[in-house]
């Protein structure tokens, strides 16, 4: 799949993003894989809190075989991501991991969401050597890249991050409902829609 790019401000794109996520979720659901939504980032830098905000918005999503890692209370960041990935791989047999993270880009791409079937390289903007992760990646471009990316992340507008978090969490939530049906936890498996 080519990278798909969506403008978070355009409400039509939320449905397009939802449908694109469904295309990838359905085969994983049919093959009975656990779905892990890995929300990467920290709440200590505005530009890097996209993942935890998405996790916070999705933490009450109750479906069998859907697991959310990372939110504002328990963020997944450079210090713990390796342990979290190890825990996920030892807890679930062949999980389908949807990795979500913020990234920096060019000015005309700020506010856009990138969906790709390649793993995320968390911490790349800050030259951190962390493990790549994700069968499906969802990246939100929160600000422009510059000579000091750490400073840019610290000075990112919360409004931009919130718009991206809302678009991503809404799309994911509705993709799961569309893929698994509208019933909760124990009934969801019998009523998969895919």
UniProtKB/TrEMBL annotation:
InterPro entries: Pept_HybD-like_dom_sf, YyaC. It holds the Pfam family DUF1256. This is Putative sporulation protein YyaC.
